[in-house]
Design goal:
single chain; Rossmann fold; 7-stranded parallel sheet; 11 helices; 13 strands; binds UDP-4-deoxy-4-formamido-beta-L-arabinopyranose
């Protein structure tokens, strides 16, 4: 069965995608430098699917190693490129670290596959829209100036990919613009492993609930939204993983839209911070302590996606709702308490 290179395949979204690729009959091969993940994730994937994915530990910024990998694996026809730094705040402090890693790894991969027929799926973000003028935001909405170097790496990477597709017909590329991935695999064997204090809402909620952290701070309750807290389109990581399988399938079939395309990957529904807190309490029965704090710098007020293009053209739709996201995230946090992976 078709071999798919998954860079960053031991990470949060990468590991769930490896599982869904295996479930769909593909053979994923993982490259990861383990800078923000744990090699034990491969054992966990094996527990879920019964198959341990092939693994190569190196840094994609090492051009020679990337070329060697390509020479050693002439049968790879699909690439899903997750490997990248992704902490918004850190990217403001260390922009060059972000530009170096996120661009060099992408360009090295693209150079190494020049002239070879490959289907390429890129991990992009709804951050490229900033605060959209219209909601729900469609793929045709203008890309707004990025709020952080991290966001800028996603915008510029999309440009690199669209220009590469225009110049080299061997490339068939899809950028998936993720909204807010949360939750964990139903087995609770894989999930998100945040380093240090979580910056994202749901890992903070579960760590607070398990007693690892103090009360949650709701960043702002004076936004122009029904309950005053900010709104996002939360998407279950397993649904998101399946969107990658759908993207690979579309590229294999031939994308009628041409050899570069973008899709929103969300549920099409927005939830406020307070609604997420309520959903967690309702679906787990666990009470949370929270307080209202000031807005966080750089946050947009509200964003959720129009998912009609992904529904109609990618043939993919999110199936799991916010309570399933919360239940699985909580089950994973409890698993981690018994089996610390970091
Ligand atoms: C969600 C909402 C916060 C923590 C970021 C990146 C994006 C993507 C995912 C990937 C916001 C509020 C949060 C807390 C809170 N990148 N919040 N208290 O900012 O939408 O997206 O992560 O790797 O590119 O920008 O996600 O989970 O940080 O925040 O009130 O303790 O929860 O203000 O409204 P965000 P998030």
């Amino acid at each position: 069965m078709s071999k798919i290179l998954v860079t960053g395949g031991t990470g949060y979204i990468g590991s769930h995608t490896v599982v869904e690729l295996q479930n769909a009959g593909y053979t994923p091969i993982v490259i990861d430098n383990l800078v923000n993940s744990n090699v034990g994730v491969l054992d966990q994937v094996e527990k879920i699917t019964g198959v341990r994915p092939a693994f190569h530990q190196f840094d994609l910024c090492d051009e020679e190693k990337v070329h060697q990998f390509v020479a050693d694996h002439p049968d790879v026809r699909g690439i899903i490129h997750f490997a990248a730094y992704k902490a918004v705040g850190e990217s403001v402090q260390q922009p060059l670290k972000y530009y170096h890693n996120n661009f060099f790894s992408l360009v090295n991969l693209l150079n190494a596959y020049a002239g070879k027929p490959v289907n390429f799926v890129f991990s992009s973000s709804c951050t490229v829209y900033g605060q959209p003028d219209e909601l729900p935001v469609t793929e045709a909405a203008p890309v707004k100036k990025a709020e952080s170097p991290y966001g800028n790496t996603k915008q510029v990477s999309e440009e690199i990919l669209s220009e590469t597709a225009a110049a080299f017909s061997n490339y068939n590329i899809i950028s998936l613009r993720y909204f807010n991935p949360v939750g964990a695999h139903e087995s609770a064997l894989i999930g998100e492993l945040p380093l240090g204090v979580p910056q994202n809402l749901v890992p903070f909620i579960t760590q607070s609930a398990v007693g690892k952290r103090g009360p949650i701070t709701v960043f702002g309750n004076n936004y122009n939204t029904p309950d005053g807290s900010a709104i996002r389109d939360y998407i279950h990581v397993v649904d998101l993983a399946k969107a990658h399988v759908a993207a690979i399938r579309l590229l294999e079939k031939g994308n009628p839209n041409g050899n570069y395309d973008v899709f929103n990957v969300g549920t099409g529904q927005g939830n406020s911070v307070l609604e997420v807190i309520n959903a967690f309490e309702d679906s787990t029965g666990v009470k949370l302590n929270y307080q209202i704090g000031p807005r966080r710098a750089g946050d947009v007020e509200q964003v959720w996606g129009d998912v009609s293009k992904s529904t109609n053209e990618l043939g993919w739709k999110a199936e799991l709702d916010i309570s399933e996201m919360m239940r699985s995230a909580w089950k994973w946090e409890q698993y981690l308490k018994e089996h610390p992976l970091r």
